Amino acid sequence: MSHAPGSDPVFLDGTLTLLTSPYRRSVLFALSEHSPLAETEVATALAASDTLDDDADLLRSKLVHSHLPKLAKRGYVDWDIGDERLRRGPNFDDITPLLRTFVASENGSADGQSRPWQPSVGRR
């Protein structure tokens, strides 16, 4: 069920609604750089960022019970509650142009190359 962004108003509305959450945007931004990622790694890095005010345990709970299921349902994230690993989903490439737009907007970067999350996500 892949759609080209902008070709379907229902797709675009649903995707933009999904991206209103800084939690979901941060997960997608991180996966655009590194895939797969551990749930705990993402939650810890996001909790350490200046953007979100939750501790890692609360953030992981919010991700697992609210945000990751929504991303998985749209096919942007490949995840299930028992796996504890996040991967780019089958429809991830559909959202890439919108992610670049958000990155450029949030960072004032015309090329969309700056990243708004902690650089330690996905690096060992």
The average pLDDT is: 78
Under CATH, the homologous superfamily reads Winged helix-like DNA-binding domain superfamily/Winged helix DNA-binding domain
Cα shape:
globular
Discrete helix count? 5
Q: Which structural class do the helices and strands define?
A: mainly alpha
Radius of gyration: 14 Å
Reading the helices and strands in chain order gives: HHEHHEEH
The level of helicity is 40-55%
The CATH architecture assignment turns out to be Orthogonal Bundle
Beta-strand segment tally: 3
- Distance between the ends: 34 Å
Low-confidence blocks of residues:
112-124
Oligomer: single chain
Biggest sheet character: 3 strands, antiparallel
CATH class division? Mainly Alpha
Pfam family, one: DUF7344
Protein name: DUF7344 domain-containing protein
InterPro entries: DUF7344
Organism: Candidatus Halobonum tyrrellensis G22
Outline the structure in words.
There is one protein chain. The protein has 124 residues and is mostly helical. The chain has one domain: Orthogonal Bundle (Arc Repressor Mutant, subunit A), CATH 1.10.10.10. Helix content is 53%, strand content 6%. The chain has 5 helices and 3 strands; from the N terminus they run ααβααββα. It has helices at 9-18, 22-33, 39-48, 56-73, 92-107; strands at residues 37-38, 77-78, 85-88. It has a 3-stranded antiparallel beta sheet. α2 (22-33) crosses α5 (92-107) and α3 crosses α4 (56-73). The chain is globular. Residues 112-124 have low confidence and may be disordered. This is DUF7344 domain-containing protein. Residues 17-81 form the DUF7344 domain.
